[in-house]
Design brief:
alpha/beta, FAD/NAD(P)-binding domain, 7-stranded mixed beta sheet, 5-stranded parallel beta sheet, 12 helices, globular, binds flavin-adenine dinucleotide
């Protein structure tokens, strides 16, 4: 049965869901608070579990045009720069998982999603539409915007990110705690860097109390930098708070010259406090559900936050396709996703200790530690289950009675 579906938030998750649902013939409208479409200027890694969804949605070729395809990943030691192969990507990802590993400039990828959604419904995305709350009942759901407008539909999907108003409407305010880590971010024109830092590989520097990730973007024209340090004097959870080069260099004093060179090449480094939230175990009630960061925000240490949001969108559409009752389909979607997303959130948190371990301080300690934690078997144990997920093939859980939405009525 075709549904009238309202989506709060035109981020990567909301747009993926919109595309999947439009392709299935549902009538979808996406409400985005921003007055203009765009994405924060940063990088993104998408492993085969997520690029599989792009292929299912018919946008893999368009994304390939704007992606980089790293040949592999390596680990490097913070001071000496000694390196170890982590795993092969490139052809290896396609051979083993059927799909590539892409690294992308987020605004480029967002544009592909927007164009694909608009090609199916030109007015699907409503801008300047900040969701304030909703009313859910037996006959459907009404979404209220902050400017006083309201829109009715059969189902509502909260894809409105980590500070989700829809989640607040369902469950009240959340209580994040500070992880003790600050992330520095920057995107660098590749031509500013020496040849060795422009290689098409993903690099993960590990050190005591911090780590650095960098990888190519946009057909290797850009390089994405993320540097994480344990620091407790900055707790602002923002993608757009600017810091200074000096402060960033100070946080990585004593690190290898390659790390310093990357930082010096960034125009404006942005700093972002990493917060931790307990993953929800339920997020579908009546005609309302959540996806992406709205229900399982994660530390970025497995590079799976957007991948989860993308998988969510595809799984939600599949459950609606394969379940007779749409409200039961929302519960089934949640049940299909909760174990995997919880495991990712917990695995990402566990990587903080692994990447920042005090054993990395000395060269000898580091050697033994890397050989223990990054040997082939351990790496496969940590990553294979992530990349090998096939959203269109995993067995769906049984259909359950949909949870009633009573307590969520008149939520705002
Ligand atoms: C430094 C960093 C590196 C990362 N690296 C990776 C990576 O390599 N790989 C990966 O998979 N993930 C990565 N992630 C995680 C990933 O970016 C997020 O998990 C992902 O963007 C979540 O998508 P989303 O659609 O759920 O939410 P968002 O991308 O946050 O989108 C939410 C949208 O909702 C809109 N919105 C918010 N409130 C309202 C409202 N009230 N009304 C209407 N609209 C609203 C917002 O404007 C936004 O457009 C990284 C995150 C960070 C911070």
């Amino acid at each position: 049965m075709k549904q009238k579906i309202l989506i709060a938030g035109a981020g990567l998750g909301g747009l993926t869901a919109a595309l999947a649902l439009l392709r299935d013939g549902h009538d979808v409208t996406v409400f985005e608070q921003a007055a203009q479409l765009g994405e924060v200027g940063a990088g993104l890694q998408l492993s085969a579990n997520a690029t599989r969804v792009l292929a299912l949605l018919g946008i893999d070729d368009a994304v390939r045009q704007i992606a980089s395809v790293p040949a592999g990943k390596q680990v490097r030691l913070w001071r000496t720069g000694q390196s170890w192969k982590l795993f092969d990507l490139g052809q290896q990802s396609v051979a083993e998982y059927g799909h590539p590993y892409f690294t992308l400039y987020r605004p480029d990828f967002h544009r592909v999603l927007v164009e694909a959604v608009r090609a199916l419904k030109s007015d699907a995305i409503v801008l300047g539409a900040r969701c304030a709350g909703f009313e859910a009942g037996d006959s459907g759901v009404k979404l209220d915007l902050e400017d006083g407008r309201s829109f009715g539909g059969d189902l509502l999907i909260g894809a409105d990110g980590v500070h989700s108003r829809v989640r607040q409407g369902l469950f009240g305010a959340d209580a994040p705690s500070f992880s003790g880590c600050l992330a520095w971010r920057g995107v660098i024109p590749a031509e500013r860097l020496p040849e060795r830092l422009r290689e098409p590989v993903g690099t993960n520097w590990i050190g005591p109390g911090g780590h650095v990730i960098h990888y190519p973007l946009r057909r290797n024209e850009l390089v994405n930098f993320v540097g994480v340090v344990e620091r407790s004097d900055w707790t602002v959870e923002s993608w757009t708070a600017a810091g200074t080069t000096e402060e960033c260099l100070g946080d990585f004093a004593g690190w290898n010259e390659d790390v310093q060179a990357l930082i010096r090449a960034i125009d404006t480094p942005y700093k972002w406090a990493l917060m931790v939230r307990e993953p929800l175990q339920q997020w579908s009630r009546g005609p309302v559900t959540l996806l992406g960061d709205a229900c399982h925000p994660t530390l970025p240490f497995l590079a799976q936050g957007a991948a989860m949001a993308i998988e969510d969108g595809a799984m939600l559409a599949r459950c609606l396709r394969e379940t007779a009752d749409p409200r039961q389909a929302l519960g089934r979607y949640q049940d299909a996703r909760v174990e995997r997303t919880t495991r990712i959130v917990q695995g990402s948190a566990a990587n903080t200790k692994r990447f920042h371990n005090p054993a990395l301080a000395s060269a000898e300690g580091a050697l033994a530690y890397v050989e223990r934690e990054w040997n082939e078997a351990r790496v496969r144990e940590r990553y294979h289950w992530l990349f090998d997920y096939r959203v269109d093939q995993v067995e769906l859980p049984p259909v359950r009675e949909a949870l009633r939405s009573d307590h969520a009525e008149r939520a705002s």
